[in-house]
Specification:
Blueprint: H1 6-28, H2 32-53, E1 57-58, E2 60-62, E3 65-67, E4 74-75, E5 89-90
Length: 96
């Protein structure tokens, strides 16, 4: 470095500073896999808590169509949750 001109010395100085800054940023970033696992576990536990405390409502029937009692959206097929509002629903059991 003693035989370098001032421009080369300046470029070397800037490159070394940039490498140090980038290296420190990489050390500060959390592990992506750990973040994904933590968020997945949080969402799973939140979903289970919501399922436990939400009482399912019976679907309302108008003709041959079923509707969510909470938001009045039409339910197609067999469903445990309303696709519109997400509330737990269930169909009344009929004995024929």
């Amino acid at each position: 470095m003693a035989n370098w001109n001032w421009l080369d010395s300046f470029i070397f100085f800037c490159e070394s500073r940039i490498k140090n800054i980038i290296g420190k940023q990489k050390e500060d970033e959390p592990d992506v896999e750990l973040m994904i696992q933590a968020e997945t576990e949080h969402l799973r536990s939140e979903n289970e808590n919501l399922k436990r405390r939400e009482i399912p409502l019976y679907l309302t029937e108008e003709g041959d169509k079923l509707f969510c009692p909470k938001c009045k959206a039409e339910i197609v097929g067999i469903a445990k949750y309303c696709s519109n509002c997400g509330h737990r629903v269930m169909q009344e059991m009929r004995s024929e």
